[in-house]
Design goal:
By secondary structure, the chain is mainly beta. It contains 2 helices and 14 strands. It has a single domain, classed as Lipocalin, CATH 2.40.128.
Amino acid sequence: MRAALVLLVATALLIVVPSSARAGWNDGQEHESRILSDRWNVWVGGFVPSFKTSVAIGSRGLLGTLFRLEDTLGLEEDVSTGRIGGFYRFSAKRAILFDYTGMNRDATRQLERDIVIGDGDDRVTYTAGAIIASKFDNDIFTVTYRHSFINNGKTEAGFTAGLSAFNFDIALQGTGTVDDGVNEPVERDVEADNSFLIPVPSFGMYINHAFTKKWILRMNAGILNLDVGDIEGRYLNTSVTVDYIITRHFGLGGGFTRQDVDVSDTGPDNPYAVEYRLGGPTLYFSLVF
């Protein structure tokens, strides 16, 4: 429902804004604005997201406990991190975009519930009352192809096809019960460390609109709904930003971005499930040329 609403609003904007794009653009003024015409754009800035993360990691075909990292392990819900992104424009209608951000969180907390997590051939059970040190690192890299069906120098709109790579690394250390499926379970100090990479394709649409040559509004929405074999996935990525071009090659921008990812693999080899939400404000400096 949320994805459908986003696309509905974006579609309405694609219809309404282009029709009014020519209105208010002063006669004799060059029909061209930065970002909508530059070949290169690179930006670097900060991102302050809020998280909601649930993870289940299994082994030997059995999925472990689905637990909320922020509630169960005490990981921070709000963090600050850096971001880098930009685009290269092949022509007025074609461009390639990239975006990268990485986040690291750690905490120590006494568990209030049991957690079962897979670790290779072993399954580790951390019982309620155990003191657990945890870390959760994740990197997000996105590459997107963008094709414009309109770019008149003031309004640019079209469709996107992208691929996001979510790299997750979760580690828990404390006293747990280890079961290797062969010998009797044994209790000892153990670290369960798992890393997995989730590639997520998406398709969507975007619109950029220049209110003046220096003020540009940018809106993007990408979605995916996948059900193939043992893998199920849903993905939504939205962003709204405003850029102000200060000089010929320098600008400032800011806005809000959100990503929702639900992915599960219930296959026999290292099954997992991830429910990942992050969203928050972003501010950046940009170079345009």
